[in-house]
Amino acid sequence: MKKLITITVVASVLAAGTLLAADAKVIYDKECTKCHGADGKGDTKMGKKLGAKDYTDPKVQAAVTDAAAFKAIKEGLKDKEGKTLMKPTEGMADADIKAVVAYMRTFKK
Fold it and tell me: What is the tens place of the pLDDT at every residue in 64-88?
């Protein structure tokens, strides 16, 4: 009985994590659009102020590795002077961050 309960709990946790990761657009819309825009161009008022990259540009996409994008979302991003350009996204699971990075890749034209 204990094994069955443990397996059920683990399966439920994995399923919940997968569901959250699959909904990357909702997360992106909530956490990223203010600066990066719904289309990923970064041409919002805040995006222009902070120099957000145009993720529809294949050259920009090629220059940003998945690891660098993951790190920026998880830890935030600062400029050379130490000014915060992007705050870390609090409480986001690694699977969700990877899903958001994958979603960001869909903006490439």
Answer: 999 999 999 999 999 999 999 999 9
Longest CA span, the chain:
58
Strand partners, 86: 77
For residue 54 the two structure tokens come to: 């145009």
According to the CATH classification, is domain 2-105 in 1.10.10.10?
Answer: no
Phi, psi (degrees; rounded to nearest 5) at 84: -70, 120
Q: What angle do CA 25, 31, 32 make, to 5 degrees?
A: 80
What gap in Å lies between CA 35 and CA 77, rounded to an integer?
Answer: 13
- Residue type, position 8, single letter: T
Q: DSSP alpha helices (H): ranges in the chain?
A: 2-22, 24-31, 33-36, 45-50, 58-63, 66-75, 94-105
What's this model's pTM, rounded to 2 decimal places?
Answer: 0.77
User: Distance (Å, rounded) from C-alpha 59 to C-alpha 75?
Assistant: 24
